[in-house]
Design a protein that fits this description.
With about 140 residues, the protein is an alpha+beta fold. The protein has a single domain (about 1-130), classed as Nuclear Transport Factor 2, Chain: A (Roll), CATH 3.10.450.50. Helices cover about 30% and strands about 20% of the residues.
Length: about 140
């Protein structure tokens, strides 16, 4: 049981690393096909909508540390719980998809004129736009 719980913890850490790096291919492999995210404002996003929001920068995870991951295994099902320590940028105010659940079409522009398309590599992106106390080094990784 302990080995299974640790495998599940490592899978979650890998999922978080992929989301922070913007590695949508790896993140896709680590999300179930029926994955759903309920945003803080109550909008439900499917796996495809969620990963598209990450890929286009509508959701941009700067850092995400899970802390201790509690794993409860019941037969072939597991439930995880943890208190996240994260920093992220959201363009939700500019994104109808994150306010209403409408899919984000690739190639469209946000209200600010930012083009939605493939996400650029992390390498310092947004660092200058963040207040000094929110900046992280590009080398920060999950344990």
């Amino acid at each position: 049981m302990i080995a299974v719980a640790e495998q599940i913890r490592e899978a979650e850490r890998a999922r978080l690393r992929a989301l922070v790096k913007g590695d949508i291919t790896a993140a896709s492999d680590l999300h179930a096909s029926d994955f759903q995210l309920i945003t803080p404002v109550g909008v439900m996003l499917s796996k495809d909508d969620y990963l598209r929001a990450v890929a286009t920068g509508h959701i941009d995870y700067v850092d995400w540390q899970p802390g201790f991951i509690d794993v409860r295994v019941h037969g072939n099902t597991a439930v995880i719980r943890y208190k996240p320590h994260w920093r992220w940028l959201s363009r939700a105010a500019q994104s109808p998809a994150l306010r209403t659940g409408t899919p984000i079409p690739t190639g469209t522009r946000t209200a600010s004129g930012r083009r939605c398309g493939p996400r650029q590599p992390k390498s310092g992106r947004h660092q200058d736009a963040l207040p000094r106390h929110h900046r992280t080094s590009a080398s920060s990784t999950l344990a």
